[in-house]
Sequence to fold (636 residues):
Amino acid sequence: MTSNVKTAEEIGALKQCVHSAARDGRAISIFAMLWNLDKHLLDDILDCHTSENGQITTPLIIACRNGEEKVVSILLSKFKINLEQTGTVKFDGFVLEGATALWCAAGAGHLGIVKLLLEHGADVNHATKTNSTPLRAACFDGRLDVVQCLVENGADISIPNKYNNTCLMITSYKGHVGVVRYLLEKGANPDSTAHCGATAMHFAAECGHLEVVKDLVRFYGKQIPNDYGMTPLLVAAECGKSDVVEFLTTNVETKEEKINAYELLGASFANDKENYDVMKAFTFLCEAMHLRYSDPDNIITKEDYPCVEAYNNRVECKTLGELNAIKYDFEALHMESLTIRERILGPDNPDVLHPIIFRGAAYADSKRFDRCIALWLHAMKLSHKNKRSIAKDLLRLSQVFAEMIHINEPVLFVNVKEVFKYAMAELTNDKEKIMNSEDDRDALFEIHQTNIHTCLYLLAIILKTKQDEKEIGELYSLVYQFQKLNPILKNGYTLLHMAVDSATFVDDFHVDDVVSFPDSGVARLLIKCGGDVNAQDFAGNTPMHALVNISSKASVNVKEVELTMQVLIDSDAHLDICNKDRKTTMDNAKREEDAMILRASFQLSLKCLTATYIRNNEIPYQNLIPSLLEEFLSLH
Fold:
Protein backbone atom coordinates (compact mmCIF):
# COMPACT_ATOMS: atom_id res chain seq x y z
CA MET A 1 0.00 0.00 0.00
CA THR A 2 1.20 3.55 -0.77
CA SER A 3 -0.07 7.10 -0.55
CA ASN A 4 -2.92 6.30 -2.90
CA VAL A 5 -4.82 4.93 0.10
CA LYS A 6 -7.85 7.14 0.43
CA THR A 7 -10.85 5.51 2.02
CA ALA A 8 -11.32 5.30 5.81
CA GLU A 9 -11.76 1.55 5.48
CA GLU A 10 -8.42 1.16 3.71
CA ILE A 11 -6.64 3.39 6.22
CA GLY A 12 -8.14 1.38 9.09
CA ALA A 13 -6.97 -1.88 7.53
CA LEU A 14 -3.48 -0.43 7.03
CA LYS A 15 -3.27 0.66 10.66
CA GLN A 16 -4.16 -2.85 11.78
CA CYS A 17 -1.61 -4.40 9.41
CA VAL A 18 1.17 -2.11 10.64
CA HIS A 19 0.37 -2.81 14.29
CA SER A 20 0.31 -6.58 13.68
CA ALA A 21 3.62 -6.44 11.82
CA ALA A 22 5.22 -4.43 14.65
CA ARG A 23 3.86 -6.84 17.23
CA ASP A 24 5.14 -9.90 15.37
CA GLY A 25 8.55 -8.50 14.37
CA ARG A 26 7.99 -8.27 10.62
CA ALA A 27 10.42 -5.42 10.03
CA ILE A 28 10.53 -5.67 6.22
CA SER A 29 6.73 -5.58 5.99
CA ILE A 30 6.67 -2.48 8.22
CA PHE A 31 9.12 -0.71 5.92
CA ALA A 32 7.22 -1.72 2.77
CA MET A 33 3.88 -0.51 4.13
CA LEU A 34 5.15 2.85 5.41
CA TRP A 35 7.92 3.92 3.03
CA ASN A 36 5.89 5.78 0.38
CA LEU A 37 3.18 7.27 2.63
CA ASP A 38 2.80 11.03 2.89
CA LYS A 39 3.70 12.57 6.27
CA HIS A 40 0.11 13.23 7.41
CA LEU A 41 -0.99 9.63 6.87
CA LEU A 42 2.30 8.25 8.22
CA ASP A 43 1.92 10.20 11.49
CA ASP A 44 -1.70 9.07 11.75
CA ILE A 45 -0.69 5.40 11.45
CA LEU A 46 2.33 5.55 13.80
CA ASP A 47 0.35 7.43 16.46
CA CYS A 48 -2.63 5.07 16.21
CA HIS A 49 -3.44 3.09 19.38
CA THR A 50 -4.71 -0.45 18.91
CA SER A 51 -6.55 -2.32 21.66
CA GLU A 52 -5.64 -6.00 21.91
CA ASN A 53 -5.63 -8.51 24.78
CA GLY A 54 -6.08 -5.82 27.42
CA GLN A 55 -3.27 -3.65 26.03
CA ILE A 56 -3.63 -0.35 24.15
CA THR A 57 -0.46 0.29 22.18
CA THR A 58 1.07 2.04 19.17
CA PRO A 59 3.30 0.11 16.75
CA LEU A 60 6.44 1.41 18.50
CA ILE A 61 5.21 0.57 21.99
CA ILE A 62 4.13 -2.98 21.12
CA ALA A 63 7.41 -3.63 19.33
CA CYS A 64 9.37 -2.44 22.38
CA ARG A 65 7.14 -4.45 24.71
CA ASN A 66 7.74 -7.62 22.66
CA GLY A 67 11.45 -7.06 22.10
CA GLU A 68 11.26 -6.69 18.33
CA GLU A 69 14.55 -4.79 17.96
CA LYS A 70 14.66 -4.78 14.13
CA VAL A 71 11.19 -3.22 13.96
CA VAL A 72 12.20 -0.57 16.51
CA SER A 73 15.41 0.15 14.59
CA ILE A 74 13.52 0.75 11.33
CA LEU A 75 10.85 2.91 12.99
CA LEU A 76 13.51 5.08 14.63
CA SER A 77 15.93 5.34 11.73
CA LYS A 78 13.59 5.61 8.74
CA PHE A 79 10.56 7.46 10.14
CA LYS A 80 10.20 10.50 12.34
CA ILE A 81 8.26 9.05 15.25
CA ASN A 82 7.13 10.44 18.59
CA LEU A 83 9.25 8.63 21.20
CA GLU A 84 7.05 9.83 24.08
CA GLN A 85 3.85 8.10 22.95
CA THR A 86 2.13 6.40 25.87
CA GLY A 87 -0.06 3.33 26.04
CA THR A 88 -1.52 0.73 28.36
CA VAL A 89 0.47 -2.49 28.80
CA LYS A 90 0.46 -5.61 30.95
CA PHE A 91 3.45 -6.71 33.02
CA ASP A 92 3.47 -9.52 35.59
CA GLY A 93 -0.30 -9.39 35.97
CA PHE A 94 -0.34 -5.59 36.43
CA VAL A 95 -1.93 -3.14 34.01
CA LEU A 96 0.20 -0.03 33.51
CA GLU A 97 -1.30 3.13 32.02
CA GLY A 98 0.82 5.86 30.49
CA ALA A 99 3.78 3.61 29.65
CA THR A 100 6.27 4.85 27.06
CA ALA A 101 8.25 2.73 24.62
CA LEU A 102 11.34 3.14 26.84
CA TRP A 103 9.39 2.07 29.93
CA CYS A 104 8.23 -1.09 28.12
CA ALA A 105 11.68 -1.96 26.84
CA ALA A 106 13.23 -1.40 30.27
CA GLY A 107 10.52 -3.39 32.05
CA ALA A 108 10.87 -6.31 29.65
CA GLY A 109 14.69 -6.21 29.86
CA HIS A 110 15.39 -5.50 26.19
CA LEU A 111 18.77 -3.76 26.56
CA GLY A 112 19.37 -3.30 22.83
CA ILE A 113 16.07 -1.48 22.39
CA VAL A 114 16.70 0.64 25.49
CA LYS A 115 20.00 1.79 23.98
CA LEU A 116 18.36 2.54 20.62
CA LEU A 117 15.64 4.66 22.22
CA LEU A 118 18.11 6.59 24.36
CA GLU A 119 20.36 7.22 21.33
CA HIS A 120 17.37 8.76 19.55
CA GLY A 121 16.53 11.03 22.48
CA ALA A 122 13.87 9.21 24.52
CA ASP A 123 13.11 10.86 27.89
CA VAL A 124 14.86 8.60 30.41
CA ASN A 125 12.61 9.78 33.28
CA HIS A 126 9.21 9.76 31.53
CA ALA A 127 6.93 8.13 34.14
CA THR A 128 3.62 6.27 33.90
CA LYS A 129 0.37 7.49 35.43
CA THR A 130 1.44 5.98 38.76
CA ASN A 131 4.78 7.81 38.46
CA SER A 132 6.74 4.67 37.68
CA THR A 133 9.90 5.51 35.70
CA PRO A 134 11.71 3.25 33.20
CA LEU A 135 14.38 2.77 35.87
CA ARG A 136 11.78 1.46 38.31
CA ALA A 137 10.52 -0.94 35.63
CA ALA A 138 14.04 -2.33 35.17
CA CYS A 139 14.57 -2.54 38.95
CA PHE A 140 11.39 -4.56 39.37
CA ASP A 141 12.74 -7.27 37.09
CA GLY A 142 16.31 -7.05 38.43
CA ARG A 143 17.95 -6.23 35.10
CA LEU A 144 21.27 -4.78 36.28
CA ASP A 145 22.49 -4.16 32.71
CA VAL A 146 19.39 -2.11 31.89
CA VAL A 147 19.56 -0.29 35.23
CA GLN A 148 23.19 0.67 34.60
CA CYS A 149 22.40 1.85 31.07
CA LEU A 150 19.52 4.04 32.26
CA VAL A 151 21.48 5.56 35.15
CA GLU A 152 24.48 6.27 32.90
CA ASN A 153 22.08 8.11 30.60
CA GLY A 154 20.65 10.36 33.31
CA ALA A 155 17.95 8.30 35.03
CA ASP A 156 17.08 9.82 38.41
CA ILE A 157 17.38 7.07 41.04
CA SER A 158 15.44 9.07 43.63
CA ILE A 159 12.09 9.47 41.81
CA PRO A 160 9.39 7.59 43.78
CA ASN A 161 6.07 6.27 42.48
CA LYS A 162 2.68 7.50 43.69
CA TYR A 163 3.11 5.60 46.97
CA ASN A 164 6.48 7.32 47.54
CA ASN A 165 8.07 3.94 46.87
CA THR A 166 11.59 4.32 45.46
CA CYS A 167 13.56 2.18 43.02
CA LEU A 168 15.71 0.97 45.92
CA MET A 169 12.59 -0.15 47.78
CA ILE A 170 11.17 -2.21 44.92
CA THR A 171 14.46 -3.93 44.15
CA SER A 172 15.00 -4.61 47.87
CA TYR A 173 11.52 -6.15 48.05
CA LYS A 174 12.27 -8.33 45.02
CA GLY A 175 15.66 -9.35 46.43
CA HIS A 176 17.81 -8.25 43.49
CA VAL A 177 21.13 -8.02 45.35
CA GLY A 178 23.22 -6.74 42.43
CA VAL A 179 20.79 -3.93 41.62
CA VAL A 180 20.52 -2.96 45.29
CA ARG A 181 24.30 -2.66 45.60
CA TYR A 182 24.56 -0.64 42.40
CA LEU A 183 21.86 1.82 43.49
CA LEU A 184 23.46 2.22 46.92
CA GLU A 185 26.84 2.85 45.33
CA LYS A 186 25.20 5.50 43.14
CA GLY A 187 23.90 7.30 46.21
CA ALA A 188 20.38 5.90 46.72
CA ASN A 189 19.09 6.87 50.16
CA PRO A 190 18.46 3.68 52.22
CA ASP A 191 16.34 5.65 54.71
CA SER A 192 13.78 7.13 52.30
CA THR A 193 10.27 6.24 53.49
CA ALA A 194 7.16 5.25 51.55
CA HIS A 195 3.75 6.66 52.47
CA CYS A 196 3.32 3.80 54.95
CA GLY A 197 6.59 4.77 56.67
CA ALA A 198 8.51 1.75 55.38
CA THR A 199 12.11 1.92 54.19
CA ALA A 200 13.94 -0.37 51.77
CA MET A 201 15.09 -2.39 54.79
CA HIS A 202 11.47 -3.02 55.83
CA PHE A 203 10.72 -4.48 52.40
CA ALA A 204 13.84 -6.65 52.35
CA ALA A 205 13.26 -7.86 55.92
CA GLU A 206 9.63 -8.73 55.18
CA CYS A 207 10.72 -11.03 52.34
CA GLY A 208 13.73 -12.49 54.14
CA HIS A 209 16.36 -11.14 51.76
CA LEU A 210 19.30 -11.34 54.17
CA GLU A 211 22.02 -10.24 51.74
CA VAL A 212 20.00 -7.16 50.80
CA VAL A 213 19.49 -6.33 54.48
CA LYS A 214 23.23 -6.67 55.07
CA ASP A 215 24.01 -4.30 52.19
CA LEU A 216 21.51 -1.74 53.45
CA VAL A 217 23.09 -1.87 56.91
CA ARG A 218 26.56 -1.56 55.34
CA PHE A 219 25.40 1.65 53.67
CA TYR A 220 24.19 2.97 57.05
CA GLY A 221 20.51 2.12 56.70
CA LYS A 222 18.73 2.76 59.99
CA GLN A 223 16.12 0.78 61.94
CA ILE A 224 13.35 3.32 61.40
CA PRO A 225 9.84 2.45 62.69
CA ASN A 226 7.06 2.50 60.07
CA ASP A 227 3.61 4.02 60.64
CA TYR A 228 2.65 1.11 62.90
CA GLY A 229 5.81 1.43 64.99
CA MET A 230 7.39 -1.61 63.32
CA THR A 231 11.15 -1.59 62.78
CA PRO A 232 12.65 -3.83 60.07
CA LEU A 233 13.64 -6.18 62.92
CA LEU A 234 10.04 -6.53 64.08
CA VAL A 235 8.83 -6.90 60.49
CA ALA A 236 11.27 -9.79 59.97
CA ALA A 237 10.14 -11.38 63.24
CA GLU A 238 6.45 -11.01 62.36
CA CYS A 239 7.09 -12.66 58.99
CA GLY A 240 9.10 -15.55 60.47
CA LYS A 241 12.41 -14.58 58.82
CA SER A 242 14.67 -15.97 61.54
CA ASP A 243 18.01 -15.46 59.75
CA VAL A 244 17.23 -11.76 59.26
CA VAL A 245 16.18 -11.50 62.91
CA GLU A 246 19.43 -13.13 64.06
CA PHE A 247 21.44 -10.65 61.98
CA LEU A 248 19.54 -7.52 62.95
CA THR A 249 19.51 -8.34 66.68
CA THR A 250 23.31 -7.90 66.64
CA ASN A 251 22.74 -4.20 65.94
CA VAL A 252 19.97 -3.30 68.42
CA GLU A 253 20.54 -0.75 71.13
CA THR A 254 18.63 -2.41 74.00
CA LYS A 255 17.99 -5.89 75.30
CA GLU A 256 14.25 -5.17 75.26
CA GLU A 257 14.33 -4.84 71.46
CA LYS A 258 15.96 -8.23 71.17
CA ILE A 259 13.47 -9.80 73.59
CA ASN A 260 10.51 -8.38 71.65
CA ALA A 261 11.97 -9.66 68.38
CA TYR A 262 12.44 -13.22 69.68
CA GLU A 263 9.01 -13.29 71.34
CA LEU A 264 7.32 -12.01 68.19
CA LEU A 265 9.30 -14.46 66.03
CA GLY A 266 8.28 -17.40 68.21
CA ALA A 267 4.68 -16.25 68.41
CA SER A 268 4.54 -15.91 64.63
CA PHE A 269 5.79 -19.46 64.01
CA ALA A 270 2.96 -20.76 66.22
CA ASN A 271 0.16 -19.34 64.06
CA ASP A 272 1.52 -18.90 60.55
CA LYS A 273 -0.11 -20.67 57.61
CA GLU A 274 3.07 -20.71 55.52
CA ASN A 275 5.72 -21.19 58.24
CA TYR A 276 3.90 -23.07 61.00
CA ASP A 277 6.42 -24.73 63.33
CA VAL A 278 5.35 -25.03 66.96
CA MET A 279 8.73 -26.32 68.15
CA LYS A 280 10.50 -23.36 66.56
CA ALA A 281 7.94 -21.18 68.27
CA PHE A 282 8.75 -22.70 71.64
CA THR A 283 12.53 -22.40 71.05
CA PHE A 284 12.40 -18.67 70.32
CA LEU A 285 9.99 -18.00 73.19
CA CYS A 286 12.48 -19.75 75.49
CA GLU A 287 15.33 -17.69 74.04
CA ALA A 288 13.42 -14.52 74.87
CA MET A 289 12.69 -15.76 78.40
CA HIS A 290 16.40 -16.56 78.96
CA LEU A 291 17.23 -13.00 77.92
CA ARG A 292 14.73 -11.61 80.42
CA TYR A 293 16.52 -13.43 83.27
CA SER A 294 20.08 -13.29 81.88
CA ASP A 295 21.09 -10.55 84.33
CA PRO A 296 19.96 -11.48 87.87
CA ASP A 297 20.44 -7.87 88.94
CA ASN A 298 18.27 -6.51 86.15
CA ILE A 299 15.47 -8.97 85.39
CA ILE A 300 13.16 -7.71 82.65
CA THR A 301 9.70 -8.85 83.67
CA LYS A 302 6.79 -9.05 81.25
CA GLU A 303 4.30 -6.26 81.24
CA ASP A 304 0.70 -7.26 81.91
CA TYR A 305 -1.64 -7.24 78.93
CA PRO A 306 -5.45 -7.27 79.34
CA CYS A 307 -6.88 -10.77 78.94
CA VAL A 308 -8.66 -11.41 75.65
CA GLU A 309 -11.68 -13.69 75.93
CA ALA A 310 -11.15 -15.05 72.40
CA TYR A 311 -7.72 -16.27 73.52
CA ASN A 312 -9.29 -18.23 76.40
CA ASN A 313 -8.34 -15.31 78.67
CA ARG A 314 -4.74 -16.48 78.37
CA VAL A 315 -2.25 -14.90 80.79
CA GLU A 316 1.27 -14.98 79.36
CA CYS A 317 3.97 -17.11 80.97
CA LYS A 318 6.20 -15.00 83.21
CA THR A 319 8.96 -17.52 83.89
CA LEU A 320 10.87 -20.24 82.08
CA GLY A 321 9.20 -22.81 84.34
CA GLU A 322 5.74 -21.68 83.29
CA LEU A 323 6.80 -21.77 79.66
CA ASN A 324 8.27 -25.28 79.96
CA ALA A 325 5.00 -26.44 81.48
CA ILE A 326 3.14 -25.75 78.21
CA LYS A 327 5.82 -27.08 75.84
CA TYR A 328 3.58 -29.90 74.62
CA ASP A 329 0.27 -28.16 75.28
CA PHE A 330 -0.11 -26.86 71.76
CA GLU A 331 -3.43 -25.14 72.37
CA ALA A 332 -1.91 -23.17 75.24
CA LEU A 333 1.09 -22.31 73.06
CA HIS A 334 -1.19 -21.12 70.27
CA MET A 335 -3.13 -18.83 72.61
CA GLU A 336 0.07 -17.68 74.33
CA SER A 337 1.42 -16.71 70.93
CA LEU A 338 -1.70 -14.81 69.84
CA THR A 339 -1.57 -12.89 73.12
CA ILE A 340 2.11 -12.04 72.63
CA ARG A 341 1.53 -10.85 69.08
CA GLU A 342 -1.32 -8.56 70.07
CA ARG A 343 0.73 -7.13 72.95
CA ILE A 344 3.84 -6.41 70.87
CA LEU A 345 2.18 -5.30 67.64
CA GLY A 346 -0.77 -3.53 69.22
CA PRO A 347 -4.45 -4.26 68.49
CA ASP A 348 -4.61 -1.60 65.77
CA ASN A 349 -1.91 -3.25 63.66
CA PRO A 350 -3.44 -5.09 60.66
CA ASP A 351 -0.75 -7.80 60.89
CA VAL A 352 -2.36 -8.98 64.14
CA LEU A 353 -5.31 -10.38 62.20
CA HIS A 354 -3.93 -13.05 59.85
CA PRO A 355 -2.81 -15.55 62.53
CA ILE A 356 -6.12 -15.14 64.38
CA ILE A 357 -7.98 -16.07 61.21
CA PHE A 358 -5.59 -18.95 60.50
CA ARG A 359 -6.03 -20.38 63.99
CA GLY A 360 -9.81 -19.99 63.71
CA ALA A 361 -9.77 -21.90 60.42
CA ALA A 362 -7.75 -24.68 62.06
CA TYR A 363 -10.41 -24.94 64.77
CA ALA A 364 -13.15 -25.05 62.12
CA ASP A 365 -11.33 -27.88 60.33
CA SER A 366 -11.34 -29.87 63.57
CA LYS A 367 -15.05 -29.02 64.12
CA ARG A 368 -14.35 -26.88 67.19
CA PHE A 369 -16.68 -24.21 65.92
CA ASP A 370 -17.10 -22.35 69.22
CA ARG A 371 -13.38 -21.53 69.27
CA CYS A 372 -13.38 -20.63 65.59
CA ILE A 373 -16.29 -18.21 66.00
CA ALA A 374 -14.73 -16.61 69.09
CA LEU A 375 -11.48 -15.89 67.23
CA TRP A 376 -13.11 -14.70 64.02
CA LEU A 377 -15.47 -12.41 65.95
CA HIS A 378 -12.43 -10.95 67.71
CA ALA A 379 -10.65 -10.35 64.38
CA MET A 380 -13.78 -8.73 62.95
CA LYS A 381 -14.15 -6.42 65.94
CA LEU A 382 -10.51 -5.33 65.70
CA SER A 383 -10.96 -4.49 62.01
CA HIS A 384 -14.21 -2.64 62.63
CA LYS A 385 -12.69 -0.67 65.50
CA ASN A 386 -9.84 0.44 63.25
CA LYS A 387 -12.23 1.38 60.42
CA ARG A 388 -11.07 -1.33 58.04
CA SER A 389 -13.39 -3.27 55.75
CA ILE A 390 -14.97 -6.31 57.40
CA ALA A 391 -16.59 -7.67 54.22
CA LYS A 392 -14.41 -10.79 54.26
CA ASP A 393 -15.02 -11.31 57.99
CA LEU A 394 -18.78 -11.18 57.50
CA LEU A 395 -18.73 -13.70 54.66
CA ARG A 396 -16.26 -15.94 56.52
CA LEU A 397 -18.56 -16.12 59.55
CA SER A 398 -21.60 -16.73 57.33
CA GLN A 399 -19.74 -19.65 55.79
CA VAL A 400 -18.92 -21.25 59.14
CA PHE A 401 -22.51 -20.81 60.38
CA ALA A 402 -23.74 -22.49 57.18
CA GLU A 403 -21.27 -25.33 57.56
CA MET A 404 -22.49 -25.92 61.12
CA ILE A 405 -26.12 -26.04 60.06
CA HIS A 406 -25.27 -28.39 57.21
CA ILE A 407 -23.72 -30.94 59.58
CA ASN A 408 -26.41 -30.41 62.25
CA GLU A 409 -24.21 -28.52 64.70
CA PRO A 410 -26.26 -26.03 66.77
CA VAL A 411 -25.77 -22.37 65.82
CA LEU A 412 -26.47 -19.85 68.55
CA PHE A 413 -28.88 -17.04 67.71
CA VAL A 414 -26.77 -14.61 69.75
CA ASN A 415 -23.70 -15.21 67.57
CA VAL A 416 -25.50 -14.69 64.27
CA LYS A 417 -27.27 -11.64 65.72
CA GLU A 418 -23.93 -10.10 66.70
CA VAL A 419 -22.49 -10.64 63.21
CA PHE A 420 -25.65 -9.21 61.66
CA LYS A 421 -25.32 -6.04 63.74
CA TYR A 422 -21.78 -5.54 62.49
CA ALA A 423 -23.00 -6.21 58.94
CA MET A 424 -25.56 -3.40 59.25
CA ALA A 425 -22.87 -1.06 60.55
CA GLU A 426 -20.68 -2.03 57.59
CA LEU A 427 -23.45 -1.13 55.14
CA THR A 428 -23.60 2.35 56.67
CA ASN A 429 -19.81 2.64 56.41
CA ASP A 430 -20.00 1.49 52.78
CA LYS A 431 -22.37 4.31 51.89
CA GLU A 432 -20.13 6.90 53.54
CA LYS A 433 -17.07 5.59 51.68
CA ILE A 434 -18.93 5.61 48.35
CA MET A 435 -20.14 9.17 48.94
CA ASN A 436 -16.68 10.43 49.90
CA SER A 437 -14.78 8.64 47.12
CA GLU A 438 -14.19 9.75 43.56
CA ASP A 439 -11.71 7.26 42.14
CA ASP A 440 -12.86 3.98 43.72
CA ARG A 441 -16.62 4.49 43.72
CA ASP A 442 -17.41 1.55 41.41
CA ALA A 443 -15.19 -0.86 43.35
CA LEU A 444 -16.65 0.31 46.67
CA PHE A 445 -20.19 -0.18 45.35
CA GLU A 446 -19.32 -3.75 44.34
CA ILE A 447 -18.16 -4.42 47.91
CA HIS A 448 -21.38 -2.82 49.19
CA GLN A 449 -23.46 -5.19 47.04
CA THR A 450 -21.45 -8.15 48.31
CA ASN A 451 -22.22 -7.08 51.87
CA ILE A 452 -25.94 -6.83 51.06
CA HIS A 453 -25.83 -10.42 49.80
CA THR A 454 -24.03 -11.52 52.96
CA CYS A 455 -26.72 -9.86 55.08
CA LEU A 456 -29.34 -11.83 53.19
CA TYR A 457 -27.43 -15.07 53.85
CA LEU A 458 -27.33 -14.20 57.54
CA LEU A 459 -31.09 -13.69 57.56
CA ALA A 460 -31.64 -17.09 55.93
CA ILE A 461 -29.24 -18.64 58.45
CA ILE A 462 -30.72 -16.92 61.50
CA LEU A 463 -34.13 -18.38 60.67
CA LYS A 464 -32.58 -21.83 61.02
CA THR A 465 -31.50 -21.16 64.63
CA LYS A 466 -33.64 -21.71 67.71
CA GLN A 467 -35.10 -18.52 69.19
CA ASP A 468 -37.18 -17.86 72.26
CA GLU A 469 -39.91 -15.23 72.37
CA LYS A 470 -37.52 -12.46 73.42
CA GLU A 471 -35.08 -13.31 70.65
CA ILE A 472 -37.85 -13.31 68.05
CA GLY A 473 -38.67 -9.76 69.12
CA GLU A 474 -34.98 -8.83 68.83
CA LEU A 475 -34.88 -10.34 65.34
CA TYR A 476 -37.90 -8.35 64.17
CA SER A 477 -36.36 -5.16 65.53
CA LEU A 478 -33.06 -5.90 63.76
CA VAL A 479 -34.71 -6.63 60.41
CA TYR A 480 -36.83 -3.48 60.68
CA GLN A 481 -33.66 -1.40 61.30
CA PHE A 482 -31.92 -3.23 58.47
CA GLN A 483 -34.62 -2.33 55.94
CA LYS A 484 -34.58 1.28 57.12
CA LEU A 485 -31.03 1.41 55.72
CA ASN A 486 -32.66 0.91 52.30
CA PRO A 487 -30.09 -1.51 50.88
CA ILE A 488 -30.56 -1.65 47.10
CA LEU A 489 -28.60 -3.41 44.36
CA LYS A 490 -27.42 -1.61 41.21
CA ASN A 491 -30.48 -2.87 39.30
CA GLY A 492 -32.82 -1.40 41.92
CA TYR A 493 -33.52 -4.72 43.63
CA THR A 494 -34.74 -4.46 47.21
CA LEU A 495 -34.06 -7.16 49.78
CA LEU A 496 -37.46 -8.68 49.02
CA HIS A 497 -36.63 -8.90 45.31
CA MET A 498 -33.42 -10.72 46.20
CA ALA A 499 -35.16 -13.07 48.65
CA VAL A 500 -37.65 -14.30 46.04
CA ASP A 501 -35.46 -14.38 42.92
CA SER A 502 -34.01 -17.79 42.05
CA ALA A 503 -31.13 -15.99 40.25
CA THR A 504 -29.88 -14.31 43.43
CA PHE A 505 -26.22 -15.22 43.82
CA VAL A 506 -25.34 -17.55 46.71
CA ASP A 507 -21.74 -18.06 47.84
CA ASP A 508 -20.59 -21.56 46.93
CA PHE A 509 -18.35 -22.22 49.94
CA HIS A 510 -20.69 -23.93 52.44
CA VAL A 511 -23.37 -21.21 52.20
CA ASP A 512 -25.15 -22.79 49.22
CA ASP A 513 -25.50 -26.00 51.23
CA VAL A 514 -28.18 -24.36 53.40
CA VAL A 515 -29.19 -21.14 51.63
CA SER A 516 -31.13 -20.92 48.38
CA PHE A 517 -33.67 -18.57 46.83
CA PRO A 518 -36.56 -18.08 46.63
CA ASP A 519 -36.87 -18.38 50.42
CA SER A 520 -40.45 -18.01 51.68
CA GLY A 521 -39.29 -17.66 55.28
CA VAL A 522 -36.99 -14.75 54.53
CA ALA A 523 -39.66 -13.14 52.33
CA ARG A 524 -42.23 -13.44 55.13
CA LEU A 525 -39.78 -11.98 57.65
CA LEU A 526 -38.94 -9.01 55.44
CA ILE A 527 -42.61 -8.24 54.76
CA LYS A 528 -43.51 -8.59 58.44
CA CYS A 529 -40.76 -6.07 59.24
CA GLY A 530 -41.73 -3.41 56.74
CA GLY A 531 -40.71 -4.77 53.34
CA ASP A 532 -42.74 -3.34 50.45
CA VAL A 533 -44.36 -6.23 48.58
CA ASN A 534 -45.03 -3.95 45.59
CA ALA A 535 -41.62 -2.24 45.41
CA GLN A 536 -40.31 -1.83 41.86
CA ASP A 537 -36.74 -2.14 40.65
CA PHE A 538 -35.28 0.17 38.00
CA ALA A 539 -36.98 -1.88 35.27
CA GLY A 540 -40.35 -1.61 37.04
CA ASN A 541 -40.37 -5.22 38.24
CA THR A 542 -42.00 -6.08 41.56
CA PRO A 543 -40.85 -9.00 43.74
CA MET A 544 -43.58 -11.10 42.12
CA HIS A 545 -42.18 -10.27 38.66
CA ALA A 546 -38.79 -11.46 39.88
CA LEU A 547 -40.19 -14.61 41.46
CA VAL A 548 -42.10 -15.89 38.43
CA ASN A 549 -39.39 -15.03 35.89
CA ILE A 550 -38.05 -18.57 36.08
CA SER A 551 -37.11 -20.60 33.04
CA SER A 552 -39.02 -23.86 32.69
CA LYS A 553 -35.62 -25.60 32.50
CA ALA A 554 -34.27 -24.00 35.67
CA SER A 555 -33.58 -26.24 38.65
CA VAL A 556 -35.65 -24.77 41.46
CA ASN A 557 -37.51 -25.97 44.51
CA VAL A 558 -41.03 -25.88 43.06
CA LYS A 559 -42.66 -26.17 46.47
CA GLU A 560 -40.65 -23.21 47.76
CA VAL A 561 -41.62 -21.16 44.70
CA GLU A 562 -45.29 -21.84 45.38
CA LEU A 563 -44.92 -21.08 49.10
CA THR A 564 -43.20 -17.80 48.30
CA MET A 565 -45.89 -16.86 45.78
CA GLN A 566 -48.50 -17.45 48.43
CA VAL A 567 -46.58 -15.28 50.91
CA LEU A 568 -46.58 -12.41 48.40
CA ILE A 569 -50.24 -12.94 47.48
CA ASP A 570 -51.30 -13.08 51.14
CA SER A 571 -49.41 -9.84 51.68
CA ASP A 572 -51.50 -8.06 49.02
CA ALA A 573 -49.06 -8.19 46.14
CA HIS A 574 -50.56 -6.12 43.32
CA LEU A 575 -50.61 -8.63 40.47
CA ASP A 576 -51.48 -6.29 37.60
CA ILE A 577 -48.63 -3.83 38.10
CA CYS A 578 -46.81 -3.34 34.79
CA ASN A 579 -43.05 -3.11 34.49
CA LYS A 580 -41.38 -0.79 31.98
CA ASP A 581 -41.99 -3.33 29.22
CA ARG A 582 -45.72 -3.10 30.06
CA LYS A 583 -45.73 -6.66 31.39
CA THR A 584 -47.73 -7.75 34.43
CA THR A 585 -46.63 -10.55 36.72
CA MET A 586 -48.76 -12.98 34.71
CA ASP A 587 -47.09 -11.81 31.50
CA ASN A 588 -43.74 -12.42 33.16
CA ALA A 589 -44.52 -15.96 34.30
CA LYS A 590 -42.50 -18.39 32.20
CA ARG A 591 -43.83 -21.58 33.80
CA GLU A 592 -47.45 -22.52 33.26
CA GLU A 593 -47.89 -23.76 36.85
CA ASP A 594 -46.91 -20.31 38.17
CA ALA A 595 -49.29 -18.58 35.77
CA MET A 596 -52.10 -20.86 36.95
CA ILE A 597 -51.53 -19.89 40.58
CA LEU A 598 -51.55 -16.21 39.63
CA ARG A 599 -54.75 -16.55 37.61
CA ALA A 600 -56.45 -18.36 40.48
CA SER A 601 -55.46 -15.59 42.90
CA PHE A 602 -56.07 -12.66 40.60
CA GLN A 603 -58.98 -10.49 41.69
CA LEU A 604 -59.25 -7.42 39.53
CA SER A 605 -60.95 -4.44 41.18
CA LEU A 606 -63.03 -1.85 39.32
CA LYS A 607 -60.30 0.67 40.10
CA CYS A 608 -57.67 -1.53 38.46
CA LEU A 609 -59.88 -2.15 35.40
CA THR A 610 -60.41 1.58 35.00
CA ALA A 611 -56.68 2.33 35.37
CA THR A 612 -55.78 -0.32 32.80
CA TYR A 613 -58.36 1.01 30.35
CA ILE A 614 -57.07 4.58 30.69
CA ARG A 615 -53.44 3.52 30.17
CA ASN A 616 -54.16 1.14 27.28
CA ASN A 617 -56.19 3.77 25.45
CA GLU A 618 -53.70 6.52 26.22
CA ILE A 619 -56.36 8.77 27.73
CA PRO A 620 -54.69 11.95 29.15
CA TYR A 621 -54.80 12.12 32.95
CA GLN A 622 -51.73 14.05 34.08
CA ASN A 623 -52.63 17.04 36.26
CA LEU A 624 -56.32 16.16 35.95
CA ILE A 625 -56.57 13.84 38.95
CA PRO A 626 -54.99 13.76 42.45
CA SER A 627 -51.26 12.83 42.51
CA LEU A 628 -51.97 9.61 44.43
CA LEU A 629 -54.26 8.44 41.64
CA GLU A 630 -51.68 9.44 39.03
CA GLU A 631 -49.15 7.18 40.79
CA PHE A 632 -51.71 4.36 40.90
CA LEU A 633 -52.43 4.75 37.19
CA SER A 634 -48.73 4.69 36.31
CA LEU A 635 -48.46 1.16 37.74
CA HIS A 636 -50.96 -0.28 35.26
Notes: Residues 255-388 form one domain. The chain has a mean pLDDT of 91.
